[in-house]
Write a structure and sequence with these properties.
The protein is mostly beta strands. Helices cover 0% and strands 55% of the residues. It is built from no helices and 6 strands. The strands form 2 sheets. The chain has a 4-stranded antiparallel sheet, with no helix packed on it. It has a two-stranded antiparallel ribbon with strand order 1-4. It is globular, with a radius of gyration of 12 Å.
Length: 71
């Protein structure tokens, strides 16, 4: 699945992490400096719920939530 993250209000955002519901890290990607949106793909991810976290450089979560993939 493909998803887009809006980071315009998160000026310290440095990377995004996506986890399965059982806590397995599936994706960790750096965010482009100065960008207000970033698009990512979860390759071969099955349909279901996932948790995302947008973090600063030290790893502190600035925002998090749930995303759904349906195929």
């Amino acid at each position: 699945g493909t998803f887009t993250i809006d980071t315009k209000e998160l000026v310290d955002a440095k990377f995004v992490e996506v986890y399965s519901m059982n806590g397995e890290l599936l994706l960790k990607k750096s965010l482009e400096a100065g960008s207000t949106q970033s698009t990512f793909r979860l390759i071969n991810a099955p349909s279901g719920s996932y948790i995302y976290s947008i973090n600063n450089e030290s790893g502190r979560s600035l925002s998090s939530g749930k995303l759904m993939i349906s195929k």
